[in-house]
Amino acid sequence: MAAMAAMLKQHLADAQARADTAEATLRAQRRIQARLEKDLAAAGGGARAGPTELERRVRDLEEKLAIQVDDNDALKETLRAAIGAKEDEIALLHSVMAETRRVYSQYMERAQQA
After folding, report:
1. Cα gap 92→5, rounded to integer Å
2. What is the pTM of this model?
3. Which residues contact 82 (CB under 8 A, 6 or more apart)?
């Protein structure tokens, strides 16, 4: 039973590490995308007088907000996955515990009969 618990803990740790890596990669890609969109907008706006400082600040804040929303969504999904994994682990441990009780009860009955 201890070996099974250790295996489950290792499996959970591996899954969490993969999720963290994927999440960090996603955030980095979103930041790159936001920077490129900002550069593209700045390059495309050269034909007119250009955005005012306030418009640039608003656009920058909107981009930052969009990145934060994406980060929050990714964190929520990671949390949901971790909770699901923990619930699965708990269910497995409950079944192992029930089986252990059953075997122990059978052993005690046999010991009393002997």
Report:
1. 9
2. 0.48
3. 12, 16, 19
DSSP for 77-114, please give it.
Answer: HHHHHHHHHHHHHHHHHHHHHHHHHHHHHHHHHHHHH-
- Interhelix angle 53-113/2-44, rounded to 10 degrees, is 170
Residue 77's CB: how many other CB atoms inside 10 A? 13
- How far is residue 75 CA from its own chain's centroid? 5
Among the listed ranges 7-21, 39-53, 81-95, which one has the minimum average pLDDT value? 39-53
**CA dihedral sign, ordered 71, 72, 75, 76:** negative
DSSP state, 50?
Answer: -
Pair of tokens at residue 112: 């009393």
Greatest CA separation for the chain:
98
Per-residue pLDDT at 109 exceeds 80: yes
